[in-house]
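Example record

The entry below shows one chain as it appears in the dataset: sequence first, then structure tokens.
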Amino acid sequence: MKKSIALLLCILMLLPLAVSCSNNSQTGGTETAPTQTGTVTPTAAENVDDENLTDYERRQLIPDDLPDVKFDGKIFRVLTTSDGYGGKIIKRDEIVVDELNGDACNDAVYNRNINIEERFGIKIECETDDNPQTYVNTLVTSGTNDYQLVGFYNYLAASAISAGSLLNWHEVPNVNLDKPWHNSLANDNATIFGKLFAICSDLSITSMTYTYGIFANIPMLDDVGFKTSDIYGTVTEGKWTIDYFTSIVADMYQDKNGDGKQDKDDIYGFGYEVTNPADVWLAAFDQPLTQPDPEKGITVTFMTDKTVAAIEKMIDFHYNNPGEFTYPSQYDEETYFLNSKLVFAPLRFYTAYNVLREMEDPYTIVPWPKWDEAQETYYTNADDKFTAFGLPLTVYSDLDYVTVIYEALCAESYKKVYPEYYDTALKGKYSAERETAEMVDLIMEGRAFDVAFEFSGTLSDLPYLFRKQIQSGSPNIASKYKSIEKSLSKNAPKQINKMYGGD
């Protein structure tokens, strides 16, 4: 009886929050998301049978275990990347937004900050810089505590790490890396000799929104003889492989303008500019670039028989398959998919929020194809520009304050912001079919975060070698790798390990 009463009370407490978020997301009205933190105590959570709760409600039950403390009006300053895209500074929007505007994702960030500011007696501010990964080095050199947290492109993290400007996240108070708002997929791979300098959490909403999926135009699929149910079935049966994918794409070309030659104005089964999306192929084929080793630090695992077979397959796909087209400019695939010129397009989830909001044709999202049916999991990765966060050495004297606020931001992002982006918007608002939600979950479960992207310069641009081979049209990746093999096997790992205190 007590257990039932406790469950009922919790549901009644959480129901207004869920209804408010849902109404705001679906109608686009001006009703605000809730401003009450409302975290349930551990004792109450233990008395709840969470099988009857939604995912959103379960998230609210997880305590952040932070102290009940006020900081008397202190300002928590964040420096992040001035990343412009579609008229928005994306990275600033992870930290602060200026006002409520009726968009559920925007308002969730605004209300998260209001909750934390009131709870801890602080003010959250954010500024941007073109190169925060080097600016943090200037802060440390000058000994100034102007910013308590710095966010930078993940692929540029090495600048601050190599300069010794960041604290080890494994050794700071109040940050519990076992909590679900910290991205263990990324953080475990980025931990070398027990040290983690560039952290990924749900405060980095771009680690989710920059994740790549394969977007599919539903009417165009129907035009070429495929139902989405066929595609979903192939995925769930584990038969969504690169061989299957390239075979169906081959028959999707249409000479739309009737000029007898393939150009960007025609219709294709698949197309993109061979830059960031091409970095996904090896991840999708379960071929890691590097692996963390507890005793050896980072080891390079790039070159295998599968790598050779994969580049041969990709060269054939990009140069001999009539259904594939390589566009001339970065992100062209977004525009051509929007205008119904592509059946399939490799796009970041963020495209759903920004570019495709006004798309006339309905679409769905499916995983990247596997290497073969023996591969158990569908994998992908995130665009290397997602945000990683570092703690400048200069915050050491005020570490309790800084880490309490950071952990609170992560926890409240997990509870209030992430669900709006992921469940309500991505899986519900911008896609057409309920099966899309299942596909998105599959994609997210298979995200691969290879630490090689943080050290691309030291690793002779290894993370981009595969894409460069596709660009060149040469399948001879073994020869190219041999030219940098000595550095990759000896010098580069030694340099990286030294940054982490290894031999």
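Notes for this example: Confidence is low (pLDDT under 50) at residues 1-44. The chain is about 45% helix and 10% strand.
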